[in-house]
Amino acid sequence: MVKGSDLSVDKDKCIGCGMCVSSFEELFKFDKEGKSDVIESGECEDCEIKAVIDICPQGAISEVKSQELKKAA
Description:
With 73 residues, the protein is α+β, with helices and mostly antiparallel strands. The chain contains three helices and six strands.
């Protein structure tokens, strides 16, 4: 299972192609600028993190490690 809170989108790399939004609509949406935005509360039961990350042709999606979240808090 993949949770939206486990993901991050680099807005500088994102070109707004929509691959992630169309493939994983429970995890991503478009923001006001037409770029991908993570749905923090989203969950995908049958997804694997590698498949979600690899869907982006620009490499803008990354996994947020729980340790990084603790540092940010």
